[in-house]
Structures are given as C-alpha cells and as structure tokens.
Amino acid sequence: MNLTLKVWRQKNRTTQGGIVDYQVRDISPDMSFLEMLDVLNEDLLRKGDEPVAFDHDCREGICGSCNLFINGRAHGPEAGTTTCQLHMRKFSDGDTITIEPWRAAAFPVNKDLSVDRSAFDRIIQAGGYISVNTGGTPDANEIPVPKEIADRAFEAATCIGCGACVASCKNASAMLFVSAKVSQLALLPQGHVERKTRVENMVAQMDKEGFGACTNIGSCAAECPVGISLENIAILNHEFLAAKATSNNLA
Asked: Locate the 4Fe-4S ferredoxin-type domain: which residues (predicted)?
C-alpha cells in the first residue's frame, strides 16, 4: 500500500507543533501500525531528517505505551485494540492517515507523538496500593474471596493505563482510569482497611493533575482497548461519597 501520513511534529514542550505530510510506499497489510512508523523513520533517517518520536515498549498490547490518536480515534479504528496491535490491513491503498498525540493538559507533549503520562503514576502513588507488613508469604486461599468478586476485581485490574480514556473524553477526564484502580482494591477484602484514605487521596491527586470532570458520556469506555466498564465509575463515586461522609478531611 502507498499512504499519505499527516503526522504531528513538535520539537519539545515549549515549542509550537504542527502537522507535516509524509508519503510511505510499499507498506505490507500484515505490518502493525508501529512497524509502518518504523518504515517512515527509516526513510527519514536515510534522507538525513529527524525521525518521528513515538512511545512504545512491549508491542503486545500489554504495556499501554503506544498511545496514538489515529484519524480522530484513540489507538485507531479497530475497537478493543492498542496501536501496536492495529494492523495496516485496516486501511486501504491511497488512504490519508492523521496521527496525533493524546490531547490533554495533564498529558504534555514531550516530542512529536510522545506524551508525558506520569500524572497516572502520581495518582497510583497517592493511594493505588495495599500497605501490608512484610513477612512470610501468606497462603493464597487464606482470605476467601467469592468468585464473582474476584472476577470483577480482575476485570478492573486489566487496565493498562494507556490514557485512551483521557484522550477520548471531551473533558479529558481520568475517571475511568482512577475508578479501575480504586475498584480493583475496594472489591477485595485486603483493600478494605485503606479504602477511605485511598479514594480520597487518589481523587485529590487526579484533580491536582488537572484532569477534567466526568459527565458520563461514555466515550472513555467505548475507546478503552481492554474494555474497562463504566460500572467502575459508579463504584468510585460510591467509595468517594462513603469516605467523605465519615472523613476527618474536610478539604
């Protein structure tokens, strides 16, 4: 396939970026989208031009690093798919493909298509964990957990933190990400001890990072590559209201 790429180029956080047009030729339909970008960068290097910066790691749909906005959709046109799992057979010969970084104030552009998603890390550091005393490894079945609860916690835990929910939301809200992390721990008995401080601290950090408010449009769940449910936002709201009703933190 021969394609026209309209790629966002930006030198760094402080400079103004813009769309630059490129042509790529002889692209195999069996290539992944990132492999196609590798071909583009090889062409640019041969010409002595600066390659396009983009984030990637596992290329197996696990790490969530391949955050690209493709033709107006997070991770591209195929539902339930990360960019690294998107194959070029989803496009046609002669297509024009627009490639941009995530658009959110809390995700500043590092360079070109690479964005800083460390805001997610700081939200996790604020409370997305369980504090336990170190010691011998406990038996896996020491604390019985009903299968239904275990399955719901596992489904929430599948969030890969890619940020597609933020990029897809008109308000750049991180509620789906935060709710998945809160739900995962709130559903399990091990997470009950810290459930109040956890949700208060994580929501406070989310607001501090500058993410927008949730208005329940549902675009976050629609574009989530691993299918995180909106039910988690309901769990987050329940946990937050319950925590605030009995909290000593009046902020």
From this structure: 150-180
